[in-house]
Amino acid sequence: MASKAYKVSKTVPKKLPSWLVPAAIVGLLIIIMVGLELTNTTHFFHKNTRSTSIIPTMSNKSGGSESSKAAKSTATATSGSKDIGSSPSSSTQTSNGDLIKPYGGFVSNHRPGQNGSPTTEESNCITTPGVSCYIEFTKGNETKKLAAQIVDGSGSTYWTWNIKSAGLSSGSWTITAIASAGGQTKSTVDQINLQVQP
């Protein structure tokens, strides 16, 4: 019986169209861009949704009050204390008129209203006399701040406000004091966040 010869056909893969690779790269870039936009990392196609509002205060004063003096004294005496935003260092206090990095009791209580503690806050900013200072609270896209005030001759300004009327949503808020003058700005972040309970 004669054997039949079988031809083995080799399948040669088809060459990919030349436009496919660039199209895949463009598609990947679009996916990445949409992801960045949805997470508010970039703002090419929508406005920044960060909202900023001013916290209402019960009193705003610079320097001379007993409360302000006590806050300044406490900030200086207890530079390592948890409730102090930051203490001055020799590098921030210069004799040539440079802006001093702000320090002080940025909030009097980092857990207001918890365990029966009061909801009224005393906030203090100590920096170079005559400059502007404000305290900012941030959580995600939310920003609340105490209105900027001019620091008096003693280098201090303070605000009295209530956590209930501040409009701070529950959660952990970063506290930053920001001082500025003549195009120069310096800021200090409190080492402890403000904890707002529901």
List keywords for this structure.
198 residues, 6-stranded mixed sheet, 3-stranded antiparallel sheet, 9 strands
SS-based structural class? alpha+beta
Helix % is 10-25%
Report the strand count. Answer: 9
Number of helices: 2
Spell out the helices and strands N to C: HEEHEEEEEEE
* Mean of residue pLDDT values: 78
How much of the residues is beta strand, in percent?
A: 25-35%
**Unreliable residue runs:** 63-96
Question: What's the main sheet like?
Answer: 6 strands, mixed
Radius of gyration (Å): 29 Å
Spatial gap, N to C terminus: 93 Å
What would the principal axes of the Cα set say about the shape? elongated
Would you mind describing this structure in some detail?
This protein is of the alpha+beta class. The protein is 16% helix and 31% strand. It is built from two helices and nine strands, in the order αββαβββββββ. It has helices at 20-38, 66-77; strands spanning 51-54, 57-62, 120-126, 132-139, 142-150, 156-162, 171-181, 184-189, 194-196. The strands form two sheets. Strands 1, 4, 5, 7, 8 and 9 form a six-stranded mixed sheet that branches. The protein has a three-stranded antiparallel sheet with strand order 2-6-3, with helices on one face. It is elongated and about 105 Å long. It starts with 19 loop residues before the first helix and ends with a strand.
List the helices and strands and how they pair.
Blueprint: H1 20-38, E1 51-54, E2 57-62, H2 66-77, E3 120-126, E4 132-139, E5 142-150, E6 156-162, E7 171-181, E8 184-189, E9 194-196
Parallel strand pairs: 1-5
Antiparallel strand pairs: 2-6, 3-6, 4-5, 4-7, 7-8, 7-9
